Amino acid sequence: ACDRVMKDIGRPRGLIDYATLEDSESEKAGNPPKSHLKLIWHPRTIAYFMIWGAIGLALLFALGVRSRLDLSVAPDRNPPYMLMSDGSVRNAYTLKLRNMQSRPRKMEITLEGLPGGVMWSGDMSADAAARALTRTVESDAIDTVRAYVIVPGGAKSQDFSFALKSLGEDGESDTVETYFEAPGGE
């Protein structure tokens, strides 16, 4: 707009211009203006482009190789354990099974370690307790499971793990180590 107004009143154009002094004087001398590509592509611009491109590729790689399955375990803190009438010891845990795929997946939760230990979830009977539970987790969802782990009498406090495995073709898995509380500590 400014160049058009300057032309209408018979004044030289370029009242507002985005050019270096060198380019302005070159243009006044009648030389052709520099190409816009030459104005943009300097070594520093190319270096910045390469750095940002590498960062973008690294993020895409990290996104592509990440696990599509996650398990988190939170033991109940109060009470840390329950002594049952038959002498066995029960601990309660909140498990979160995360399915990061766009399809439902069948998953198996198993106990690793903890000799004689079995578990059941809050939505089933304690009579159905076993070393493994099977759950179906919806697509892009988190399934919260209240798990009860019971060990026969005389159990000691000890480390053990919950293992989560996808029962599909991919066979992805995750393991989280936790602690089983019992009377008398370690």
**Portion in helices:** 10-25%
Distance between the termini: 83 Å
- Strand percentage: 35-45%
Low-confidence stretches: none
Counting structural domains, the number is 2
The CATH topology label of the largest domain is Immunoglobulin-like
The CATH architecture of the largest domain would be: Sandwich
Description:
The chain has 186 residues and is of the alpha+beta class. It folds into two domains: 2-65, no CATH class; 69-180, Immunoglobulins (Immunoglobulin-like, Sandwich). Helix content is 23%, strand content 35%. It is built from four helices and nine strands. It has helices at 2-8, 21-28, 36-40, 43-65; strands spanning 69-75, 82-83, 89-99, 105-112, 118-121, 132-137, 141-151, 158-166, 173-180. The strands form two sheets. Strands 1, 2, 3, 5 and 7 form a five-stranded antiparallel sheet that branches. A four-stranded antiparallel sheet has the order 6-4-8-9, with no helix packed on it. Strand 8 and strand 9 (173-180) form a beta hairpin. The longest helix is centred in the first third of the chain and has 23 residues, at 43-65. The termini are far apart. The relative contact order is 0.16. The mean pLDDT is 90.
